[in-house]
Specification:
The structure is a homodimer. By secondary structure, the first copy, chain A, is α/β, with parallel strands linked by helices. Chain A has three domains: 3-128 and 294-325, NAD(P)-binding Rossmann-like Domain (Rossmann fold, 3-Layer(aba) Sandwich); 134-290, Dihydrodipicolinate Reductase, domain 2 (2-Layer Sandwich); 337-419, ACT domain (Alpha-Beta Plaits, 2-Layer Sandwich). The first copy, chain A, is built from 15 helices and 16 strands. In chain A, strands 6, 7, 8, 9, 10, 11, 12, 13, 14, 15 and 16 form an eleven-stranded mixed beta sheet that branches. In chain A, strands 3-4-5 form a three-stranded parallel beta sheet, with helices on both faces. Chains A and B meet through α2, α6, β10, β11 and α12 of A and α2, α6, β10, β11 and α12 of B. β11 (283-290) of chain A pairs antiparallel with β11 (283-290) of chain B, so a sheet runs across the interface.
């Protein structure tokens, strides 16, 4: 009975008839387990006999077919779910951290007990992206996924872009609007995005990726300057979750990324999420919507519950484990081996020939320059030089930036942001 | 074995193992019925015993569980499907005209014989929009749908916008690229869009709308001038399929529409399609992708076929008819009663006071002006006056334009294009 749980209960109470009419199955909300079961529940007319603080009353009730887990976090959600599955219950969850970190144990146990686990609400809020990847695009070999899947950071980046403000002000604004938590670390550092990406990679590539194998950079180092230069160059900056095949390896990474301003992903602003999926048959598809919030996530949880109920009554096959659905043994590409275009900003002493020095170092590392903005001098005789490169190796780029930053003309560490042309 | 059929066959032949691995069910392509069964088939290795020109060999074969209909048009597709259903076969079709015009007979017969009809490929090509409306958003009351669902017209409008050319040149370009047919009437006049909209309305609102009850305007009257003025005003022009609730009535219409340039729908260019769905729980969702073409549509058809096969083997309930899933008796709002903002372009004699005359007529009809562009004089002493109105009644607007066009200063009939702020 947290935020999403309250939305789900509201859905059951207020549109039971609607759900029955649309699905053809009748569902009963049998029990709500909540630590604070004795507190009033936000205007909902809940029969008190349904409420309990004792999880055993849910786990051991033989009348219950489906458990909906909306606790969040790993413990005790994991233990409850495993116990529920052992006792023959099907499961709906929106717990991205749990699935990203402990999904294997849960899916294996479900398979062993021939029970289903649905989790549409775990990625993209109300967007039916799990359904699209598992069912709608089932005939496709997925080439790549690019996702804006954290509403907090997207709101902050949109605000920085539109208001021309810095991260700190945009974060404060997001907190005032309830779009960022008091401790926003999981969002800002990209960890929440990585959790969701791990789930998408499992669905799209049949590959379980441990979180520590994902290269994750958040937005904490992003400066308003770079967002403004990007815009001048026809790009916008988004925190992107990326998974793509490249030379028979799989790249899986989370970092701020420059995208062409004309691409539909660039129009995804505020707390909205979007996932671009490139399938070999369907081509590019984009799924856009509210990525979090009470009713959007409840919409996904209810859809899962309805589908489970239909399958319990009508019958169903046990679908293969995701790892078995695609040839899953694909190796991950080490971050240093990826190939990308880069946006680079160097802050150097304003002196004739500095651009030549930088260009020479880049050239020596096989990095060629696509375009340059050299701004007018600012105070302290330092000047920003902004470059966009052609495709280059991450390894080469890091070596080159290291050399540039050791030049006597370097006034601040260089900034590099990866680009995707999409 | 037309365009899409060839794609579906290719899918079965080339990724049978992949489909089995991903779905858990084994499917066999039993028969292909094609008028030209004796011609070579585009490099596909088809067992000749599978090919036939005799549709009875498909319809009467008791081993066949699923019929995939990719003939197009009403006859004989309708008769074949009804016969197949009578003989106990489930159906996959991508035939939008058939479903829009004769869907009722087909769905009722399917229900009577307890057979399923899947039709993901009929709207939006490979985009899983049917699945999203039937399953992913099942808990939502849908408020509105806005769709760019005809790739040909969207390609033409994008070309007119980007190249600054007129309809005829853009159409020629589309035909050269294979994006428009030799006889492009069904696309240009909005009829194909209306077919697809009728299917979306059935799914979203449980309401069967006869085609002649849909207000349909195509793009044949659109001038490049209006696209350029719209852009100056911060809008773009799209051929939009619209269905929305308004004061307990349902509006269903197809016409060119001005959309704010910053909205994600405005970023849908070329042959891409997108459908914006507004649900009361999930909020705005947008589904974007290739709306036609061999492999995108084949992707949808294969997904339907896989799901059907899973349900045949695993079991399933008979879902309610779409008309029963929502309270479907909602009345349509007559076009004259709709309320909209309007873009208006009048071409008048360049003389002091002409704007005042136009504004007076609009005001008399309760139409207030939000903004104006008055351009410099062109040849023949005529000048365009471009206005955007606040919300107004269609009935009032038509009366006002009639009066304006009868003014002595009027040099050409006025142009009016509806706007959606989204």
């Amino acid at each position: 009975m947290g935020t999403v749980g309250t939305g789900v209960v509201r859905g059951f109470l207020e549109r039971g008839g609607y759900l029955l009419r649309r699905s053809g199955v009748s569902m009963q909300l049998r029990r709500i387990c909540d630590r604070h079961a004795n507190e009033p529940h936000k205007g909902l007319r809940i029969d008190r006999s349904v409420l309990t603080t004792d999880v055993k009353q849910v786990l051991t009730d033989p009348e219950i077919d489906i458990i909906i887990e909306l606790i969040g976090g790993i413990h005790p959600a994991k233990e409850y779910l495993l116990e529920a599955i052992r006792r023959g219950k099907h499961v709906v969850t929106a717990n991205k951290a749990l699935l990203a970190e402990e999904g294997e144990a849960i899916f294996r146990s479900a398979r062993q007990h021939r029970r289903l686990v649905f989790f549409e609400g775990s990625v993209g809020g109300g967007i039916p992206i799990v359904k699209a990847l598992r069912e709608g695009l089932i005939a496709n070999r997925i080439e790549s996924i690019y996702g804006i899947i954290n509403g907090t950071t997207n709101y902050i980046l949109s605000t920085m872009d539109q208001m021309g403000c810095d991260l700190r002000d945009a974060l404060g604004d997001a907190q005032r609007h309830g779009y960022a938590e008091k401790n926003p670390r999981l969002d800002l550092e990209g960890i929440d995005t990585a959790h969701k990406l791990a789930i998408l990679v499992l669905l799209a590539f049949g590959r379980r990726v441990p979180l520590n194998a994902i290269h994750v950079e958040g937005i904490t180092q992003l400066s308003g300057h770079d967002i403004r230069y990007a815009r001048q160059l026809g790009y916008c900056v988004k925190l992107l979750a990326i998974a793509k095949r490249a030379q028979n390896r799989l790249e899986v990474r989370v970092h701020p990324t420059l995208l062409p301003s004309r691409h539909p992903l660039a129009a995804v602003n505020g707390v909205y999420n979007a996932i671009l999926v490139r399938g070999d048959m369907a081509g590019d598809q984009l799924f856009y919507g509210r990525g979090a919030g009470q009713m959007p996530t409840a919409s996904a949880v209810l859809a899962d519950t309805v589908q489970l109920a239909q399958q319990i009554i009508g019958g169903h096959i046990m679908p293969p484990l995701e790892e078995e659905r695609s040839r899953g043994a694909r190796r991950l590409k080490p971050m240093l081996d990826i190939c990308s275009r880069y946006y680079i900003r160097c802050t150097v002493t304003d002196r004739p020939g500095v651009l030549a020095q930088i260009a020479r170092i880049l050239g020596r590392h096989h990095i060629s320059i696509a375009s340059v903005i050299q701004q007018e001098r600012q105070r302290a005789r330092s000047v920003p030089i902004v470059l966009m490169t052609h495709d280059a190796l991450e390894r080469d780029l890091r070596l080159a930036l290291g050399q540039i930053d050791r030049l006597p003309i370097a006034r601040q560490p260089s900034v590099a942001i990866r680009m995707e042309e999409l």
